[in-house]
Amino acid sequence: MSTTPTRRPEGAEPSLTPAESMTHGRASLANRAFARLSTASGVTILALLAAVTVFLVLEAMPAVTTSPAELAERISWFPEAGGILGYVGPLVFGTLLAAVLALLIGTPLAIGIALFISHYAPRRLAQGLGYLVDLLAAIPSVVYGLWGSLVLAPRIVPVQDFLAQYLGWIPLFDGPAAHPARTVFTVGVVLAVMILPIITAVCREVFLQTPRLHEEAALALGATRLEVIRTAVLPFARSGIISAAMLGLGRALGETMAVLMILSPGFAYSFALLQAGQHQTIAANIANQFPEANTYGVSTLIATGLVLFVITLAVNMLARWIVSRRAEFSGAN
């Protein structure tokens, strides 16, 4: 007499042994705990961002709502004309000018270093050079400030004189060049060195993620090493390069001590990179004026900090928009 096996209804889960049931329960509990922890972490970030925003807005309101004449009367370093916008405007201009200059100097150099480490250097040399570049990120900003003011500023004077003499017809290099070079040009060079490890590290990892088949296909078609990089590596890494540059720009926008120790401050809308006493950044101005600021002065400085916060947020949003627009054209897809 034959027996037919009992069919399990469709969709029904297989029966588990007690040991398997206990293991499944532990895994399910771990998954739920990890999901809740991840959700709590994301909510914490949003809550901190909201708290910072509320603090900046509330503390900046006295400066925003007070008349310019009263602010000039209560704050010794506040300009008599222009009001809060007239005070913040030159600071925003100087901040953006120094950060963009650092980005223009540092990004090509960082891309070149990343390409050398990922595609040209021998493995041992590439590892050592990668460690040295990453070590630049561990140097405190005050050390960069000391190096920039005591070492770089005196030695960059001949470079500034050369630019003023032969390229002075360009408004950026309009002379006479300042001696010593406590200018936004020197600040841009120092900031470029400071953002170098961030951009280099991100670009290096992106370049190493280029599909090997893409490079081998280009080599099989007779492409040179330079053509492989131009046709296979750089298109694939385009969105990563943009992300790295925006990270470096965010670092340059908020840098304080190095700028404070190097730059001779001024409040002017000037593109003259080689002249001292023309520019000042928001972060350096806050650090410079905060120790002697009264209640209205602190509120005014926090208002400038709110503007810097908005600029940084706008830069990050712009970077994400550019990356999302460029992603479909990159080799990553």
UniProtKB/TrEMBL annotation:
| InterPro entries the record matches | MetI-like (IPR000515), MetI-like_sf (IPR035906), Phosphate_PstC (IPR011864), Phosphate_Transport_Permease (IPR051124)
Coarse class of the primary localization is: membrane
Spans annotated as Disordered: 1-22
Q: Record's Gene Ontology CC terms? A: plasma membrane
Care to name a GO molecular-function term for this sequence?
Answer: phosphate transmembrane transporter activity
Topology of the protein relative to the lipid bilayer: Multi-pass membrane protein
Q: Which residues cross the membrane?
A: 42-64, 84-117, 129-147, 183-203, 256-276, 296-319
From which domain of life does this come?
Bacteria
Q: A single Pfam family, by name?
A: BPD_transp_1
| Domain called ABC transmembrane type-1: residue spans | 92-319
GO BP terms, alphabetized: phosphate ion transport
Give yes or no: UniProt keyword Transmembrane helix. Answer: yes
Q: Which UniProt keywords apply?
A: Cell membrane, Membrane, Phosphate transport, Transmembrane, Transmembrane helix, Transport
Per UniProt, subcellular location reads as:
Cell membrane
Q: What family classification does the UniProt entry report for this protein?
A: Belongs to the binding-protein-dependent transport system permease family. CysTW subfamily.
Reported function: Part of the binding-protein-dependent transport system for phosphate; probably responsible for the translocation of the substrate across the membrane.
Task: Name the chain's protein.
Answer: Phosphate transport system permease protein
